[in-house]
Amino acid sequence: MASSDEWGRGLHGIILRDIPRHESTTLFSSLPNIRGGACETPVNLAASITELVYRYSISTRTMDFADENFELREVQRLEGHTDRVWNLAWKPATGVDGVPAVLASSSGDKTVRIWEQSPFTGSFECKAVLEDTHNRTVRSCAWSPSGKLLATASFDATTAIWEDAGGEYTCVSTLEGHENEVKSVSWNASGSLLATCGRDKSVWIWEVLPHNEFECVSVLQGHTQDVKMVQWHPSMDILFSCSYDNTIKVWAGDGDNDDWHCVQTLNESNSGDKMVSCSDDLTVKIWGSDIMRMQSGDGTAPWTHLCTLSGYHDRTIFSVHWSREGIISSGAADDAVRLFVESKDGLVDGPTYKLLLKKEKAHDMDVNSVQWSSMENRRLASASDDGTVKIWELCSSSGQKKA
After folding, report:
1. Per-residue DSSP letters for 37-92?
2. 218 with 259: CB under 8 angstroms?
3. Are strands 70-78 and 389-396 parallel, antiparallel or unpaired?
4. Separation of alpha carbons 201 and 225, rounded Å
């Protein structure tokens, strides 16, 4: 029996996903002196939450994009997958200081491909194909903070852990326990914990032990529908999950982190951290929390809705990602990639965002994932149902990339 993620878009002869109603990607970032406060009106999350991403907390500087025109220039088209490409992950600490950039892509063809940028030509080449471990779609992939391990989550109900030994990848552990499809995997900031989630409505937290052993320390059962994505806070052991039940849940552990519980559910209506969520209700939502309160240990600061970006998309939004410069990228079912930046004309009671550019026909089919490089500020990767991965550079309209 095929999963709901594999079937549903039957019109026009395309195999389509059965997409719920608020697919959410969230990113979080520490930005000092952010304008805004709590939203006074309830937020209607009319669709299922599907993705979470936290915005970078490393000395992010807000860029001024006023009075300058930009374009998203295609640098390279990466081909090799024989089915749709679902997810992308840039390897940490690559693409800087002479270390070639490395990108992982996961696909419906049951494989993960490792792409590496040539130091001589600047082009990306496939250096490894991770195969013969999963027997169904590989839905998600994530590097450990050290870049030594790569976790891959599959519809075959398993999560595989791959070790990089000088460019040779070996599957060193297979995590089992989910009843069916595993849809997302995420490492915490220290690499000591791994989170997985799936169609069985559960979130699993795994402790990383010596010798590539993993132990499940908690199974979180708060969601009432498929859990589409999990994402850790970039500096604290706080976990976010999003689900087809139209909610984002915030989880925290007690003491030794063996006792995890839900501290907040975002389905309703501060400066500090921000995250972004996207959905097939055609909106992008910005959320905020008080990072100073969380870091001080004075409880868990609640997340509040700051603003909604609507009217920019006319088909389901599958993915959003926040760059270190504060640029939000989105990938959607209209085959386009859009970029948003914070407007300097925002109201005093909250931030506002404007469309920086829209790249029409970025792919031939749905754009499933967009991922900014963690090192190159203006480098973006996108993945699509057309089976390709594309590398983009954000440039001024004159064609010169801005630093």
Report:
1. ---SS-----S------BPP-SS------TT--EEEEEEEEE---SS-EEEEEEPT
2. yes
3. antiparallel
4. 5
Residue 246: partners with Cβ closer than 8 Å, 6 or more residues away: 20, 21, 22, 45, 46, 47, 48, 49, 267
Taking the CA atoms of 335, 382, 31 and 249 in sequence, report the sign of the dihedral they define. Answer: positive
3-state DSSP assignment of residue 181: coil
Report angle CA 306, 308, 311 to the nearest 5 degrees. Answer: 165
Contact 267, 45 (CB under 8 A): yes
Going edge to edge, which strands form the sheet with 272-278?
29-31, 272-278, 284-289, 304-309
- Nearest Cα to 152, choosing from 385, 27, 192, 136? 136
Q: Read off the pLDDT band of 267 (50, 70, 90).
A: low
Please classify residue 326 by burial: count the beta carbons closer than 10 Å to its beta carbon, then call 0-12 exposed, 13-18 middle and 19+ buried.
Answer: buried
pTM for the model: 0.83
The pLDDT value given to residue 258: 72
Q: CA-CA distance, 176 to 178, in Å (whole number)?
A: 6
Contact between 66 and 353 (Cβ < 8 Å): no
Contact of 240 with 34, CB cutoff 8 Å: no
Instruction: Quote the tokens at residue 197.
Output: 């989630």
Please give the structure tokens belonging to residue 298.
């004075």
How many angstroms separate the CA atoms of 107 and 86, rounded? 5
H/E segment holding residue 294:
helix 291-296
Q: Would you tell me how many other CB atoms lie within 10 Å of the CB of residue 123? A: 13
Show Cβ contacts of residue 131 under 8 Å, excluding neighbours closer than 6 positions: 110, 111, 112
Summarised one tens digit per residue, pLDDT across range 182-222 is: 999 999 999 999 999 999 999 999 999 999 999 999 999 99
Residue 340's DSSP bridge partners are 328, 355
Residue 198 structure tokens: 């799936």
